[in-house]
Each structure stands twice: as structure tokens, then as C-alpha cells.
Amino acid sequence: MLQRPFTVVLMVPTGIGASIGGYAGDALPVARAIAQISDRVVTHPNVLNGAQLYWSLPNLYYVEGYGLDQFAAGKWGLRPVHQNRVGLILDQGMESDLQLRHLQAAEAVKTTLGVAVTDYVITDTPLDVQLRTAKSGASWGTIGHPDSLLRAAEVLIEKSNASAIAVVARFPDNLESQTLANYRQGKGVDALAGAEAIISHFIVREFQIPCAHAPALTPLPADPKVSPRAAAEELGYTFLPCVLVGLSRAPQLVTQADHPSDITMQDVDAVVIPADACGSSALLSFSQSQAQILAVEENQTTMEVPPESLGIKPIRVKSYLEALGGLIAQRSGIHPEALRASGSSLCRLN
Questions:
Q1: Domain boundary assignment for the chain
Q2: Which of 146, 245, 254, 272 has the highest local Cβ count within 10 Å?
Q3: Mind listing the pLDDT tens digit for each residue in 157-172?
Q4: Are the CB atoms for 65 and 48 separated by under 8 Å?
């Protein structure tokens, strides 16, 4: 008898200092491992983006955070594609040499990897990205001119028939920041991640199209103390290649999931999440479904929101290695308690 595809959602919320997934693509090995024992893995750019490093697999689905929220709520489905036409937005606030570096990166991805990067648009005014930090330590941010961002996206969709949008915005340089120093040493929060999420949210919410962002920054001086977790961001002038590769096969976001290949939230079998970062709207939606929640204790964040505090009953696992075992058991139709030395007894109901 044929079984339905085993579908896992892997979530590591961005900008909250996750010990795994809070740096430059350092959760990518987790995604690759889960993809080997699953038919489909739905995850977001924060997990898969590693600056100039990436690892594309046919069963990894690259879904922006707002789109993932709508998917989890049952409002949108995911429609797999063979290839997207990726349009590129460059912030007018970028210096000419940074613009050139990013255009060359896009040309390289198009020529060397065959990604269908179509045309580019420079925003009609600087986007004016501003960075903020919450009391919890999580990063967030705003852009001063979201209308300019949306106008640029509209041009690419209407004139270039773009089916996905990559954005490069000029971010503030803060070379003396202690937050930056901590992050480069593998013990802080990514100060850019929260603002990056806001930028992509604007476009996905307005146009229902895959989108991801790469920040433009002045290259940092070499530092021998950089942590391996942050080292991917030291490789060059741009973080754009991983974004273009991810968007090239990102599923389209559909309100009518009526194609045989469409994926809906009812298809999700398991959700893997850091154990203290369970307050997202996506997880709250998944907790109301039949999906099994696996909470990974080893992946600590600044959020301090355990699932039990929200009435969610997860399977708690110590590590992603243990999570892999839980997923294999679930796919095999084996209750995880059967693999423990001390299983629970049946309860009599009145």
C-alpha cells in the first residue's frame, strides 16, 4: 500500500540568537540530514542561507517566514516548481561599488549555475534600513520607505514576469558594535536578521510571491577570532548567491491548493523547533493540527517560550541527532516511547 509523502517542517526563528541556526547557514547540516529521511522538508531562508555557501536538494522547500505563517494557518499552499524567474531589487542607498559587486554576483550565479536571474531594478529612493534590539535581546528593524520597495517589486513582476524576488538593501555599518563582535565570535544575536525578515515580509504579503533578502555591507576587516559558525559571512562582498539559488526553486504560494503536487498544512507530519522558541504564529497553528511537535532542547535561544507554557505537548529531544531518531520512528509507524527503556503505561478513561 502506498503511503503519503512524509513531510517535515524545520523552523529556527530568526534574530533570536539560536545556538544552531542563528548564524550563517549553520542549521543547513540539520536540514540536509532531515531531508535524507523525509520525502519533503519545508524550511525558511534563515536555515538554508549561508552567504556564498548553499546546498540545494530537490526535496528542500525554501519558504519565506510570512509565507510559512500563512501555510501553517492553512491559508496558502505550496506549489513546487522546476524553476523560477528571479528578479533582483537593489537599494538606491548602496554605493556604486557595492551595487557593482552585487550585480556581478548575480551575473555569476546566472552564468555559472544556470539560475534564471532576469532583470534588476534600483529603488527610486533609498530604503533606509534601521536596526533595533528588543529587551529579550532579539533583533528586529524597520525600513523607512517600504513603498519604494513595493514599487520596485511591481516593476519586476509586471515588466520582467518575475516569479520570485531577491532584495539587496544597504544595511548600516557598525564596525565597532559589541553585538557584531559577539556575533562574529559565535556567541551573540544576528543584529541584521530581524530587519531582513521585515523586508521580505512586505513583498510576500503584498504580492504572494517567494522573496528573500541579502544585506549589503562594507566588508569587515579580517579577524582571526571569527567563529566557524559565522565564518561563511567572511567570504566576500555579498551574501546574494545563496538567496538566488534558494529562490530559483522556491515553491509558489497559492490560495487554491488544487494541483496534485500542492502541499498544504494538512500534509505536515512533524515540526522541529528549538524547545524555548515556541511562540511563533506558525508553531501555534501547527500545534492545532495532527503534526507532531519535536522540541530540541540543545538549540537554545533568547526567547524563553517553552511549548508547555502555551499548552503544547511536544516530544522533547535533547539534540537534532535525537530528533532524527524521532522522525525515523514516526515515519516507520513506531511510537517513540517504544524506543525508550521506561515506556508509559496505558491510562483507563471513564
A1: 7-80+254-336, 86-244
A2: 272
A3: 999 999 999 999 998 8
A4: no
